[in-house]
């Protein structure tokens, strides 16, 4: 068994399922937890408190425990999702993409440890000052909204700069990736793209097909999908997605948002968004989430045991 700070939370393997908005519901989170990791619900801005309660119950029924991830910048205008998340007593609460300082004390008062996913050294210092318990170094290889610094440079920088436990996210899709970040000093990994072809994910069937068919060179870091859907993400965070006709037409093009909105079609794989990271090239078929997590953990343990 790989024992780290993360496994002190009751996990058998040091793996979090990424809290992917619109993709990570109770079924996916529950299967990650049942495999020994911790599945995280992705509570996007448009999520409701009732959704959090219902999906947390599903996750617990499947896997016994659940984590919840929230977007901090959206809590600044409406913190009802925070109240709903705290009411579920998750194993871990993730407060990312913004300063978590106003919200960490409320989680700690309920006995809930807090993670914060960061994209720069300055972000880490903000999260550290806010009193979070664990830092997640999310590199630009990650799918969905992320920063621009690569996972390995960012991870090294943060490990040198903090005494807090650090997890790695972005580009980790096999046991080799988990072994690499553990060997570097991380206390675990967050995996997202590796799970996106799993049948437990929320979303259209074409999204899983797109994940399986894409290579690691087929992603683009862009804001065009946020603009098309009027998602008010702060400008500093773009999203990494699989390139398609929509991105080829509009990424880097000076087009009005109204044109993007009229052209975007969530039902069309050529015109809708499938967020995914550069680890998409490691996904070769639709596999249950639990099988993915168990193989990543077993392969990492086997690789690391060569040097034990």
Automatic annotation (TrEMBL):
One of its GO terms (molecular function) is oxidoreductase activity. It is an enzyme of class 1 (oxidoreductase). It comes from the Bacteria. Gene3D superfamilies: Aldolase class I (3.20.20.70). Keywords: Flavoprotein, FMN, Oxidoreductase. Coiled coil: none annotated. InterPro entries: Aldolase_TIM, NMO. The keyword Transmembrane helix does not apply. Its EC number is 1.13.12.-. This is NAD(P)H-dependent flavin oxidoreductase. It comes from Rhodococcus gannanensis. The lineage of its organism: Bacteria, Bacillati, Actinomycetota, Actinomycetes, Mycobacteriales.
